[in-house]
Amino acid sequence: MGSKRVAIRAAGANLPTAWGDFRILVYRDIPTGKEHAALVMGDVTEKDCPDPVLVRIHSECLTGDIFGSLKCDCGPQLQESLRRIAKEGRGVVLYLRQEGRDIGLTSKILAYELQEQGLDTVEANLQLGHPSDARTYDAARDILNDLGVHCVRLLTNNPTKIEALQKLGFNCLARVPLEIAPNRTNRAYLETKKDKMGHLLDKV
Fold it and tell me: Using one digit for the tens of pLDDT, what is the confidence trace for 63-77?
């Protein structure tokens, strides 16, 4: 599947969490040196009869995942993904170090400043000289291949992720919606994701 390998396994250990017991695996991104993580629950290795694995490919969001920012829906999406995988007893959360759709924390906060001046999230990125979404998913391909996962039910509202995985060789692929109800702060942000980035959102 795909082309040159960009991510290799570096470490692993058991990780008890509030949602249940996972195995955490760390992967080193060869081109960038970044460290991605995979949280794995249950036996996800596909054998003779492929059974699609519930997978969340989650991009790092310091403000949302750690500090509970209401500007985005990232933190609740991560928590809901862990909850759903724990409920099934089998699945993978890939935590990719792609802060701010891979423009970095500094640029992300600069984009926040521009949003405070009236720009939306897409306009702010473009104003800073970045694409609206700079992420790639080669590392996700390598991690899933290493885990033996080839048939995926992807927790996402973003059809671009589906298209990216298809281009990387994942033909057995289905989308599972992961929509979080908007709050008083992030409704405009979610509307922009729906209207300008094609996210499949019914609650905004």
Answer: 999 999 999 999 999
Mean pLDDT in residue range 86-90: 95
E-strand stretches of the chain: 7-17, 20-29, 35-41, 53-59, 91-96, 151-155, 172-176
Whether 128 maps to a domain, the answer reads: no
Looking at residue 78, its amino acid is L
Residues annotated catalytic, as ranges: 133, 135
Rounded mean pLDDT, 152-173: 90
pLDDT score of 4 more than 90: no
- The CA distance from 165 to 50, in Å, is 17
Element (H or E) spanning 76, and its range?
A: helix 74-88
Q: Which domain range does residue 51 map to?
A: 9-98+135-197
CATH number for the domain that contains residue 31: 3.40.50.10990
181 three-state secondary structure: coil
Q: What is the pTM of this model?
A: 0.93
